[in-house]
Design brief:
Layout lengths: L1 H19 L6 E2 L5 E2 L63 H11 L13 H13 L11 H12 L11 E6 L4 E6 L2 E8 L12 E4 L2 E8 L4 E10 L2 E5 L15 E3 L1 H10 L5 E5 L6
Parallel strand pairs: 3-11, 9-10
Antiparallel strand pairs: 1-2, 3-4, 4-5, 6-11, 7-8, 8-9
């Protein structure tokens, strides 16, 4: 029995010193936090400290009077976020194949807004082109500088109002070459040049000086069976009137009359009087 007891005591002593040897190592607790080692000044037992001979061999370590303070998290350094790059927006209108030609013409006309002659679409160009298209009935008025827009803009920009031979009163001027028309009084332009469509091949509008012979808000055309709004006759059966078809269809034309957009037909009708001078000059291409 004595031998067995002595062996048990020896096992217990080895077990106790085995625990003490790891007491200075940081061990994770059940909650996952680090348990701080106890300092020698606090009476810790283990391999690094000499046991007190008066103390029983089974004495437990003296706990700390207060739990160790948790380390505070370091304050992150304040960093300045880099500015977000500015988003670049595309112009509101697509760019057409005649961008530079239209910009050049609109810059010369000067009444549709600021444009930059660089062949590149911008928001300002877009707005000016849309305004121009709306004014002259170009469809769609989407701001794209296509062939029709370029054709109309270049014709208007090339019109020379000084070539019209005016009288003492109001004169309606018709430029067959550029397919434009305007009104003058006393040598000054009172209705700016606008577009027209005159007689097609075989029905070319004759050149010369004429005068307004009669007017009617709506005239019936016997040979062609169609109403002619804002009619002003100046040469036989030829006169000014609102177009009855899309005026920008160049493959067709009138039977000699001077076709006008609705807004222009009304403006010419309001200004015109019987006896006003009409001067037609030039030649429509293809006639």
């Amino acid at each position: 029995m004595v031998g067995k007891c002595s062996r048990l005591v020896a096992v217990a002593v080895v077990a106790l010193f085995g625990v003490g040897a790891c007491a200075l190592e940081s061990q994770p607790d059940q909650a996952g936090a680090d348990v701080q080692p106890v300092s020698a000044g606090q009476g810790a037992t283990g391999a690094s400290a000499s046991p007190d001979p008066a103390a029983p061999s089974t004495a437990a370590p003296t706990p700390s009077s207060s739990p160790p303070k948790a380390e505070s998290s370091p304050t992150p350094a304040t960093t300045t976020k880099p500015p977000k790059p500015k988003k670049t927006t595309k112009p509101g209108c697509p760019q057409g194949e005649s961008q530079r030609e239209v910009e050049t013409a609109l810059a010369k006309l000067g009444s549709f807004g600021e444009v930059t002659v660089d062949g590149k679409q911008s928001d300002a160009d877009c707005a000016a082109i849309k305004k121009f298209q709306q004014r002259y009935g170009i469809s769609p008025a989407a701001g794209r500088a296509g062939p029709t827009t370029a054709d109309v803009a270049l014709r208007l920009a090339a019109t020379d109002t000084s070539k019209c031979k005016t009288g003492s009163g109001t004169t309606f001027c018709v430029d067959l070459t550029h397919q434009t028309t305007w009104a003058m009084r006393g040598g000054k332009v009172v209705l700016k040049p606008t577009i027209t469509r005159t007689g097609m091949p075989g029905y070319a509008t004759p050149t010369g000086a004429y005068s307004v012979q009669n007017k009617a808000l709506k005239e019936w055309s016997n040979p062609y069976e169609v109403w002619l709004p804002y009619w002003q006759r100046f040469n036989g059966g030829i006169g000014f009137h609102e177009t009855t078809t899309y005026i920008h269809t160049k493959s067709i034309g009138s039977h000699g009359c001077v076709n006008l957009l609705p807004s222009d037909a009304r403006a010419f009708y309001d200004l015109g009087k019987v006896g006003n001078r009409v001067y037609v000059f030039g030649r429509r291409p293809g006639t």
